[in-house]
Design a protein that fits this description.
Two copies of one chain form a homodimer.
Chain A (H helix, E strand, L loop, with lengths): L2 H23 L26 H18 L2 E6 L5 H10 L2 H5 L7 H10 L27 H9 L5 E8 L6 H6 L13 E8 L15 H10 L3 E6 L6 H27 L9 E6 L9 E2 L2 E2 L18 H13 L2 H4 L8 H4 L43 E3 H15 L4 E5 L18 E2 L11 E2 L4 E3 L3 H13 L3 E7 L7 H14 L11 E6 L17 H5 L7 E4 L4 H13 L4 E5 L4 E3 L4 H10 L1 E3 L14 E6 L1 H17 L5 E6 L17 H8 L5 E5 L4 H7 L8 E4 L10 H7 L4 H11 L3 H4 L1 H21 L17 H4 L4
Parallel strand pairs in A: 1-2, 2-3, 3-5, 4-5, 9-12, 9-13, 10-11, 13-14, 14-16, 15-16, 19-20, 19-21, 21-22
Antiparallel strand pairs in A: 6-7, 8-17, 18-20
Helix pairs in contact in A: 1-2, 1-3, 1-5, 1-9, 2-3, 2-9, 6-14, 13-17, 17-18, 19-23, 23-25
EC number (chains A, B): 4.1.2.-
Keywords (chains A, B): Lyase, Thiamine pyrophosphate
Family (chains A, B): Belongs to the XFP family.
Chain lengths: 795, 795
């Protein structure tokens, strides 16, 4: 390593550190052309310095590797609090000024760079959507390594350098993300180089991994299947020596990676032990060693702002100035504030700059999927409710064709449930599950490379998919409905990322994140109460209406049409809930396309409205099981009260219920009334927690007439019809509700209501006695509603 | 190991396996007194067999250890799907019949035991609250090991045997839970013996840990700080040999544990490497090897029900009968179906039976906390709004005293935020953070034993606390409000556990799970958008009203009173949101007690109602920051429109807004109207997402007049007052809202409304220019509202 290269590395490091400190502290006097005065210092000192010097050191050294080895590299900063560092590096390599032309690469631009940081109307304190080169925010910790692997899938030429803070390393999601190496194909996927950055401290505590012996730490990394390289720096180390030693470790890692990739291309089949680096360095490195008599550098006290009184306290101000000048800014920046030649010499060319990587502005990379016509997979429905099909199995055939046509840009992620959710066998006729650990002759559908990613960690599934989408590809996450709550917070953070990205002019749209929540609340026959929770929709709807869509297709064709729409959308999160069990099919493909285009509508064949007479009562449903019960209730009313004008409504796009002023999919009040009426009783059978419908519709004219049934947290291991009875969502209860809500209905229909509730009681008794539902009552084509389908003309 | 003991172990194992299979399959003929006929088989075959034989093997062998070493042991079955096994063991040791007298320990009881499993009206398929000896459900996987450590804290005589499935081991929470051993004190805490049960398969896939080489797996466990013992069994192994070898491993582990504990009691200070066992055994062990020509035993096909056609398919029925008879039931059960003497010989005495452990029926162990009088910690408030205090700092002094008085039964859990949330320094005057990894001279408040548990994993915090509560102790979990979403699903599962427990007659109440959500959405000055999410309340309110309570105390004294209440409550989950920043104080302790007892109320000193005249408009608030803005808005209106009768309402107990028919804390409609009026405009400033208030109050008479402001997902790193402005929750907007909603108010008060919005614009401009809020506008005692406090008589 010659001195020139060391000088360049050190200049970059000092410059990036200087610019980071400047962002946290300075309102003016960015180059210290004059002595530092209180008015140069920001009134509110916000930000996090502790992790920044380590992040900047890595950045400089990856730049060298890019130059020397012509790498295509992406940088993921797990410590999101290192935001000022990532911004500093992007400014140094010129990307920042290209994307934000007012933040020029000179003294004036530097002043704007400093001022805007954590400043009202400026930029946030994290590596955020506003940060060039970032696909990872890291405000909430735990997902950097999953994101890194997601970025590497199907990107064989990409090296993802992922710095993991030792705080983040304590989280569960990060602790299991190390195992991602069992799912990476060294031929068709890229490389992840994890750098575990042990700076020893969290906000107020030491970190666990910094306080176990080296041999234990190395065992841990070997146990995770890695080949660890350990390097340690202290505050006393000579910086030239730091660069020399760190460059040597980075070269060693790069050499081992190259060897692994070459061997894999030559046909090596064993899972490689990829290198990873353990970097021990002081927290707040190069910052003030002692403040007010207390040690700061190398302790948790440097986590945020090491000198908190710089504006009020003359001693702190002087110490801040010394600290800034210790980086020797005069050597680093020219007369106009532009970076010195040493720094320029370490800037990779064009798109090779990590801040300019097209992978990190994924919209530039993303290509529309080549999608088949969903009609080619449609279920034939001549007569509603006569034939059964599994909606997800039908979708599986469609997704298989999506994979066939898009062999490098589409993946399916899920926690061991692709088969259970009936997307298999179809998808396995096209692809396999990617798996790089040991295989045996008993295994099925495991392969070195495949489109299906299964691991029993919802965090991993979501993190991988996010990384995959954020680097320009497409995918679907299938999950048990109840357990998708495991990633509530990841959903929240991704929604926030998308929301913030919309305000960033240079970020092009990325593919939407698509959920398929099958194995839903109503069909947990094997599993019971713990597996019953439809509340993810409620979590999703707290996020911006610009981002969130919720669909409840009620049969195979509406599911196909919904997914065709979702896979074409961008910058959204689509929550799709659909059952996997064989169930009656209702809409032909033509009808499904029309119904889904409207998002909701009257099922005329199911109701008993007569021309010229408005409905007496509306039975509405959202979700596959509620729709069956509503249709059965309508069928009962048709038989028992033939004069009654019943309207049956189905809602696929839940956002239609909101007002157009609140959600882009929302209906106008007049359109809403045209479907639901303004003044007739509405009995609404909803898939999830009933109050959600009120939350969406509380401003509607007819809201006072709206009576919602849904899941009210009653459940156990029991039969499907017992489940709907437990939650008052069954056909008998719904029919009784409808009658009871008619004017004078309770009196006029008293005998029938009593009869309905008695049929309910008998159904329950039968189930308790026989352990299965009475075939004469439950199901669809059975018993009381048998053959109805034939009398309803298909649309 | 003599043959007698082996015979006993094998008899127990066969009997437990037999009873497990019987539960999954049989409706009648429990002892196979006659040949098996289709009508003996359940119509719906539900349950999971795959993991059961391993769980039963461990159970038998722990029984031996208990007998031979007089252990006090608790069994946690990570694979919740092993429910039939846990029920079988509880029946064998007699506990089941003691707790459920109709399920006698004879043939009739066995028939009932079989029938009820996964049967409508019966018991669920998991180790559940209904299962004797269980504190862990495991429907959602990942938390067994955290629960085990939580159970061990402060239980020095307890050994928690924790079986971890290799599916569960892939989850993030479990992957980091191994590090719990850095937080366990071998003197004052108990022992956890993790048994990683590798049966190799999930639903449809191999497991990661079963498919890495032994040396990697051992490295991993050593890296986690454990001393692993590996043992492997195959389907071909002789069962006597199995018992001999497994007993030897269990003895080895028990010996090492005893040595560690003895050394620790003798003063050894180094963190011990606790033993753990890796148990490789076939999935579906002892079940059918091949079904319909496909391998089943030792594959994923034995995950649930190995023979699915036993009622319809004569071949399956015959195979089922052979399988059941392979356990030789005639040797295992006597003439009346009672367990044979060999089995009885392996039953530990009384409470030593794991199914009868009082630790697992925690209400029997729980003692009320010795609580101080919160008045002793109250802030003096003579005049509302004149002095500042940090509510959480005041609470910290109170919690410190709680710890002083309850040195063995109360702990505080949090992800590195006790200091940041200002509970320190007070709590560290009484106790320390428990930490068993290396320490340095820079560390503060770390100790071998302490009442504060900090690790950067919300999953660990929640899991430890749940385990601690479920074994009869008390605690509080403090978290950033946004990041408590990380444990949404754990919250859901714990709520379901409590809900189901209420239906189990023999389960005594346990202490409530108390959250303290500080560092909330409105004060993320350092952190910005990623740290802003008040939606946990929405998640919480989807669970049963019997369980969930939400409190938003708005100053120190209301927080004290709230926590005094929470720490006395049982079987609930209390979500308490309170800011940590120094803020004005409003209520004296007397007033706070009265206000909190009602849960909400009119702040008469803040309004301008006159006697005999109802309010013209109601300004309501829930949350500390919204209350400040409402009080400031009321102050503005008092000055600008002196004739206007403004009522100011504050809500601490959010559940008061619901109807009494929906929540036990709910107000009657008349009481609601007495506070909010039935017909006047209500401007409601809410801490969280605004639609939640509509969801709670949509049936109230005055709902059409209710106008809610709250967090609408607008945020970044900015000033506190800019944050409320971004979300239209600021005093100017609220005052303008109030005026605009008066009859003809928009016209009558047009000039003032315009002036208010102009003050808002100027406030925003000031902030954007100076990077801090205009001291003349924002804050509380400043500017427009200065000195108001003095004119409001303290109650």
């Amino acid at each position: 390593m010659d001195d020139d290269r060391i000088a360049r590395l050190d200049a970059w490091w000092r410059a990036a550190n200087y610019l980071s400190v400047g962002q946290i502290y300075l309102l003016a006097n960015p180059l210290l052309r004059e002595p530092l005065h209180p008015e140069h210092v920001k009134p509110r000192l916000l930000g996090h310095f502790g992790t920044v010097p380590g992040l900047n050191l890595v950045y400089a050294h990856v730049n060298r590797l890019i130059q020397e080895r012509d790498l295509d590299a992406l940088y993921i900063a797990g410590p999101g609090h290192g935001g000022p560092g990532m911004v500093a590096n992007a400014w140094l390599d010129g990307t920042y000024s290209e994307l934000y032309p007012d933040v020029t690469r000179d003294e004036g631009g530097m002043a704007r760079l400093f001022r805007q940081f954590s400043f009202p109307g400026g930029i946030p304190s994290h590596a955020a959507p506003e940060t060039p080169g970032s696909i990872h925010e890291g405000g909430e910790l735990g997902y950097s390594l999953s994101h890194a692997y997601g970025a590497a899938f199907d990107n064989p030429d990409l090296t993802v350098v992922c710095v993991i803070g030792d705080g983040e390393a304590e989280t569960g999601p990060l602790a299991t993300a190390w195992h991602s190496n069992k799912f990476l194909d060294p031929v068709s996927d890229g490389t992840v180089l994890p750098i575990l950055h042990l700076n020893g401290w969290k906000i107020a505590n030491p970190t666990v991994l910094a306080r176990i012996p080296d041999d234990e730490l190395l065992d841990l990394m070997r146990g995770y299947g890695h080949d660890p390289l350990l390097i340690e720096f202290t505050a006393d180390d000579d910086h030239a020596d730091v660069h020399r030693r760190f460059a040597s470790v980075m070269d060693e890692a790069a050499d081992r990676i190259a060897a692994i990739r070459a061997a894999a291309r030559d046909g090596a089949v064993e899972r490689p032990r990829w290198p990873m680096i353990i970097l021990r360095s002081p927290k707040g490195w190069t910052g003030p060693a002692v403040v007010d008599g207390l040690p700061v550098e190398g302790t948790w006290r440097s986590h945020q702002v090491p000198l908190t009184g710089a504006r009020e306290d003359a001693g702190h101000l002087r110490q801040l100035e010394e600290w800034l000048r210790s980086y020797r800014p005069d050597e680093l920046f020219g007369a106009d504030g532009e970076p010195a030649p040493d720094i320029d010499g370490l800037v990779p060319s064009g798109d090779k700059r990590m801040s300019a990587s097209p992978h990190a502005n994924a919209g530039l990379v993303r290509q529309d999927l080549d999608l088949p016509d969903p009609r080619d997979f449609a279920v034939q429905v001549d007569d509603p409710g006569t034939d059964d099909a599994s909606a997800t199995a039908v979708l599986g055939s469609y997704l298989a064709e999506v994979m066939r046509r898009n062999p490098r840009t589409f993946r399916l992620f899920g926690p061991d449930e692709t088969a259970s959710n009936r997307l298999a066998p179809a998808v396995y006729e096209v692809t396999d599950k990617q798996w790089k650990a040991k295989t045996t002759e008993l295994d099925e559908h495991l392969a070195r490379a495949g489109r299906v990613m299964e691991v029993l960690s919802e965090h991993q599934c979501q993190g991988w998919l996010e990384g995959y989408l954020l680097t320009g590809r497409h995918g679907v996450f299938t999950s048990y409905e109840a357990f998708v709550h495991i990633v509530d917070s990841m959903f929240n953070q991704h929604a926030k990322w998308l929301e913030a990205s919309k305000e960033v002019a240079w970020r092009a749209p990325i593919a939407s994140l698509n959920y398929l929540l099958s194995s839903h609340v109503w069909r947990q026959d094997h599993n019971g109460f713990t597996h019953q929770d439809p509340g993810f929709i409620d979590v999703a709807l707290n996020k911006s209406a610009d981002i969130v869509r919720v669909y409840l297709p009620f049969d195979a064709n509406t599911l196909l049409r919904t997914y065709d729409h979702c896979l074409r959308s961008v910058d959204e999160i689509n929550v799709v809930v659909a059952g996997k069990q064989p169930q009656p099919q209702w809409l032909s493909m033509d009808a499904a396309v029309e119904h889904c285009a409207r998002g909701l509508g009257v099922l005329e064949w199911a109701g008993t409205e007569r021309e010229g007479r408005e409905a007496d009562v509306v039975l509405a449903a959202a979700g596959d099981v509620p729709t069956i019960e509503v249709l059965a209730a309508a069928s009962i009313l048709r038989k028992e009260v033939p004069d009654l004008a019943v309207r049956v409504v189905n809602v696929v796009d839940l956002m239609r219920l909101q007002s157009g002023s609140e959600h882009p999919h929302g209906l106008s009040d007049d359109d809403f009334d045209a479907v639901f009426t303004a003044d007739r009783p509405i009995i609404f059978a909803y898939h999830g927690y009933p109050w959600l419908i009120h939350r969406l519709a509380y401003r509607r004219r007819g809201h006072d007439n709206l009576h919602v049934r849904g899941y009210k947290e009653k459940g156990t291991t029991t039969t499907p019809f017992d489940m709907v009875m437990l939650n008052d969502l069954d056909r008998f209860r719904l029919a009784a509700d409808a009658l009871g809500r008619l004017p004078d209905g309770e009196r006029e229909h008293a005998a029938l209501i009593e009869d309905l509730l008695d049929r309910r009681r008998r159904a329950k008794e039968y189930t308790r006695e026989h352990g299965e539902d009475d075939p004469a009552i439950s199901g669809w084509r059975w018993g009381g509603v048998s053959g109805e389908g034939a009398r309803w003309a298909a649309r």
